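Async update (no meeting this week)

Hi team, since we skipped the sync, here's where things stand on the single-chain job. The sequence we agreed to prioritize is pasted below, unchanged from the tracker. I ran it this morning and attached the output directly underneath so nobody has to dig for it. Comments welcome in thread, and please keep replies under the output.
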Amino acid sequence: MQTLTLRAAPIKENDRLITLLSKEAGVMRAFANGARKPSNPLHGATQPFAYGAMDFRQRRGTYTVIEAQAEGVFFHGLAADITRLALANYFAALCIELCPQEEPASEQFRLMLNALHFLSEGTRPQALLKSVVELRLLSLAGYMPDTEEPAVRFLCDESLERAFRLSLPEDALQALSRYTQRYLCNQTSKHFDELDYYENISR
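Output:
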């Protein structure tokens, strides 16, 4: 499967419990035995914001990673700026909340890879990336906003490539970010601690 590791929690002495977004089966959780050891073949591919290919063994509803090959790792670029890493963690929380389980999620997978690439490189405004991810994940989950606001319609209706190239003045980007955030919170009725943290450190 093509996977993106969203979270990695330490368990036991050397293992990890990872939460993944997979292209073929949406959000998954799996055990990675021995993955915390730097010498373990699973180490690189099971760290947060690594993407690549994984094979699993399934037994009694539990997945265990048996083979993994990292194609890239966004973490190093994200960790260079604490606000980037905080926003990436918010994106991961949104995926876990809004992406399907046990169903294909190819559009969500492509969205996240692109967003994390731009975020780790620092080549797009964070306010734009936040709005794109919020609106596209909501729309894919069936919550597309019913509004004629031009920037919102553009981010929902245009290709992903064009959405990420949207250019607006800083004050307009911030207003768009506030709109998409309010809309997301209203639709999900969920409080995201990751969003609180991002807002606190980015002021």
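Quick observations from my side:
Residues 170-188 form the longest helix (19 residues).
The domain at 76-202 is CATH 1.20.1440 (de novo design (two linked rop proteins)).
Reply here if anything looks off.
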